[in-house]
Amino acid sequence: MEQKKVKHSVRENTAYVLRLTWNIRRVLIPICLAAVAATILMPLVTMYLPRTVLAQLEAGTPISVLVLTILGFTGLLTLLRAVKVWAEVMMERDGMMIRFERTWACHHRAFTCDYDWYDSADFVAGHEKAMDTVRNGNSSFQAIFPCLVKLCAGALGFLAYLGILLRVGWWIAPLTAACTVFTALLRMRSNRLRESGREQFWQYYKRSDYITTSAMDAKAAKDIRLFGIASWFRELFDTQLRLFDDWNSGMERGLLMADLLDCGMTVIREGVAYFVLISMVLNKQITVPDFVLYFAAVGGFSAWVSDIMSSYTELDRHCLDIASYRNQVEHPNRYLHGEGLDAGTLSGKPLEIRLEHVRYRYPGSDADSLKDINLTIHPGEKLAVVGLNGAGKTTLVKLICGLLDPTEGTVFLNGTDLKAFDRDSVYGLFSVVFQDFCILPMTLAENIAQGQVDAGRVRECLRQADLLEKVESLPRGIDSRMCREVYDDAIELSGGETQRLMLARAIYKQAPAVLLDEPTAALDPIAEHQMYLRYRDLTAGRTSVYISHRLASTRFCDRVIYLEDGRIAEEGTHDSLMAERGAYYKLFEIQSQYYRAGEEETV
């Protein structure tokens, strides 16, 4: 599943940023205009100051007038400098707000995009690039404002200085501009080269980031020490460092060549212009004050041209980043979100789930995870799904609750194609507990309620999940904060306690369907069996799907399907499948013999 990249031009991306600015922080636009005015006028005032003073000295102007002239220029420069500093501070502040707003937009996109995009390496890489565009003050959504100020000031300054230089000779301005443009084009080419190598850079970055994350990962810390694999991490780090250095050196060589050529072009353009000006003074074609003015104008003109090209090159780079960002946050969902049929109308009815000729293949895979699945889960039925690892059990659950759409075939909810529903309302029909469940940095009660908290109902759900006694023993009870990565005083539950917390969450939601994807993996077989019996009692009358590696936990279910290689290989009750003596029977016997052997040893 590949994201289609839309190529936005520099003009389109600039207009996009300006529209955002107008809608979010429109005061930033007059601030930028003030910065442009100050940026243009400061060098003009500085350039005319010596020329004016020299002209007055040649004319024998009184000292008092000279002093007033100098004070006037100095006061104006001070005012312009103050305006520029104020504008720069305001640009940084308001630009930061634009960046923060775009940061949330990127997060919101990740929260609301079609779930199956997470299985796409292209989506994950795109999200990393988008976040890089808003991650810090040097990122494009903030840095683009000083860049635009510099570009606009450069363009206006170019016109002002062009008018001055045309008095000297028509060819000086084109020569100066041509030399500057030549080196700027080289820099643009270097930028394009750098952008083309960003995908490779992200490969190095992800691997290095993995090492950095693993160094502080408490789960990995045990294995790193017990198996002595710190040296492997060092070797991996050194390899990535060498590869990155080779890549970066190639990029820097291109930039160095552009700098050297820029130096050469500077010697040509300014050397020729200065030679002509000196000759004109010696031939009395211009006065000394004019020489000072034109001399400064040549350097200033080169600077304006250079500013135009360098700022445009920088703008081009920012726009490439912003284009990557827009490709991520503007990429359309395929599922219906906020439109379509309201699945909430089904919540008061018994829920039937039917899959017809369903096939699913993950992005980038060369094989189907599920193949021609035909299955009807009747209202109020308790279905057990079993099979070896990789048989497609979790994929089946994700298809049922609408996280994934079939590659082929159809999933029906009470006879209606799931695709016709507003996907967000579909999620409300299911209480799902996955084996890799999520604990959020909020209170224990909020983790259960996932919204508005009813304290009495939370306690009742904890009681039903056999966790109330543990929670009430905590100093802050149901108001105890969770997730120690965020809160220093957060509580930590054991694996079994956390799974009981997930049971309480599933009970609290009271959805018409319950899907359990091996949520009891951290429990021993007896505790798991008791947990599943509790699920059975608490979900009476609701459509339920249970996934477990331990086949003994399927006895309370109305029906069992055995998945093998992405297909339904066997189907029936526990007793009927045992009587058939097929794959289900063999797997059950393999598991149960260890418990029987253990019993014989203890007798």
How would you portray this structure in words?
The chain is of the alpha/beta class and about 600 residues long. It folds into 3 domains: about 10-330, ABC transporter transmembrane region fold (Up-down Bundle); about 345-430 and about 515-600, 3-Layer(aba) Sandwich (Rossmann fold), CATH 3.40.50; about 440-510, Rossmann fold, CATH 3.40.50.300. Helices cover about 60% and strands about 10% of the residues. The protein contains 19 helices and 10 strands. The protein has helices at about 10-25, 30-60, 65-110, 120-130, 140-165, 170-195, 200-215, 220-225, 230-280, 290-330, 395-400, 425, 445-450, 455-465, 470, 495-510, 525-540, 575-580, 585-600; strands at about 355-360, 370-375, 380-385, 410-415, 415, 430-435, 515, 545, 560-565, 565-570. The strands form 2 sheets. The protein has a 6-stranded mixed beta sheet, with helices on both faces. The longest helix has about 55 residues, at about 230-280.
